[in-house]
Amino acid sequence: MASAKLLLLVATSVLSCGVILADYAPMTLTIVNNCPYPVWPGIQANSGHDVLEGGGFFLPALSHRSFAAPAHPWSGRIWARTGCTGAGEQLHCATGDCGGRLQCAGLGGAAPATLAQVSLHHGNDQTSYGVSVVDGFNVGLSVTPHEGRGNCPVLACRKNLTETCPSELQLRTPAGSVVACKSGCEAFRTDELCCRNMYNSPRTCRSSKYSEFFKRECPQAFTYAHDSPSLTHECAAPRELKVIFCH
Ligand SMILES: *[C@@H]1O[C@H](CO)[C@@H](O)[C@H](O)[C@H]1NC(C)=O
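== Osmotin-like protein ==
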């Protein structure tokens, strides 16, 4: 009886192993800093998913870091922190800060920050990805899947919006330099601009003159909570997904 059970267990694990191998090709995640200054990427997994690379690390100008993506479904967001001082448990960033530490370890970043949103290995090994400035903009970025099948375009918000940001959206350092561009929601905190409460549905959550500024500059990016779902792309089994800052 016991050995029959064991056999069954072995058979099921072999089977599920086989299924995993067949469904999910190994994938590499690469984060590139193409900016002329260092960034501290942050990675936040959606609830229940693994923390990758401690959730954050230092990335000098013109360098990259590659690591293996989880071999199972995973979703989350990647952003850049800029203007950081300190180190380790005491890292404070002018933009994208996550609780004042290097490793975000599950925490998200402070707005405004440009986001790469990714969902790996869902459905029939689809990877979906998008660029969002719903929470504002701090650094231009692009997301590029490599060697995938199907609909796998490069998506980007490339312009440096900190240069053109309307003054009421500018985030400035105490010394006065503009380091990021807030969303209308972040700047004014109204239910309407934040698509909260009665404005939290595809019908009532609308673009605003603020989101339209982002849309003009970055048509491929999500600019408000219920922006067109067609901005998310689905690519089958890419071998690598690259997020490039300042590109
Ligand atoms: C973007 O513009 C800001 C404000 O002018 C500047 O400080 C920053 O260095 C620029 N970023 C890049 C990548 O050129």
